[in-house]
Amino acid sequence: MKHLANRIILLLLFLTITTIAFAQVNTEILRKNLEKGFYLTLESALNCKSGNTDEIKVAFKARLDYINKPWYGFIVGKVHYTDTDDEVSTNKGFSHLRTGRDVNSLISLEAFCQAEYDEFISLQRRYLVGLAPRFTLYKLDRGDKGGLRLYASFGAMYEYEKLDPDEMETTDDHPITSRLLRSTNYLSISYAAAKTFAAVWVVYYQPAFERFSDYRILSEIDLTIHLTNKLALILAWNYRYDSDPPSHLKRYDCEIANGIRLTL
């Protein structure tokens, strides 16, 4: 459980630092509804099992936003860890910083950077930095009754990636480190029913400029059921597809998670 203690310490350090610096909410549907100010959202999930199998699963997520129209910005971090019979089966996390400015009611310009690791896809570290406009394709606001929103973005980013050489097969010609430019594009659909239910679906398509056969598809569905103004149940589905992974890895990963969300 030593790895678990280290991850919890890192998460607490992350929350201490980012709480001083920024503030924000978690989903696309809420982001544009925020008034001027600071917002903090925390999520956690803990599953424990003992007996024939000893297992602990921990997931944390924190997001902080600052809104001061026409400017806005946020930072978000995630940590996922699973230990089964003292064997680590999940160990991944990322942090993402984004800032933007509304040009008008339909277009925003955004800049972002990201750091990521995932032990079980042999990813020691990945760093991203990029620019992208964000377009409002459709927006139907019904006040307290909810609404429907559709966004799209088409941009570019620089990616640095380093894989774990100890996990690579001797016959694998995939580079340990890579530096390249990717196109980064997404479509986001958000729906809310009053203050009781919200759903967000975001899908990314990220091909390499120098070789379009090297691409990634990322898809996420986030369902939220509000119990109170501050507390909600969440269900998330994540799918990741990599057209050119190392030979010892599958091209896709799929994950379903549930937990609670606390907004302060």
- The CATH homologous superfamily name equals monomeric porin ompg
Largest sheet: 12 strands, antiparallel, barrel
Query: In angstroms, what is the radius of gyration?
Result: 19 Å
Distance between the termini: 30 Å
> Number of helix segments?
2
Low-pLDDT segments, ≥5 res: 4-30
* Share of β-strand residues: over 45%
CATH class: Mainly Beta
Element string (H = helix, E = strand): HHEEEEEEEEEEEE
Q: Give helix % range.
A: under 10%
- Let me know the number of strands: 12
CATH topology: Porin
Describe this structure as you would to a colleague.
With 264 residues, this protein is mainly β. The chain has one domain: monomeric porin ompg (Porin). It is 9% helix and 64% strand. It is built from two helices and twelve strands, in the order ααββββββββββββ. The protein has a twelve-stranded antiparallel barrel. The longest helix has 20 residues, at 2-21. The chain is globular, with a radius of gyration of 19 Å. The relative contact order is 0.13.
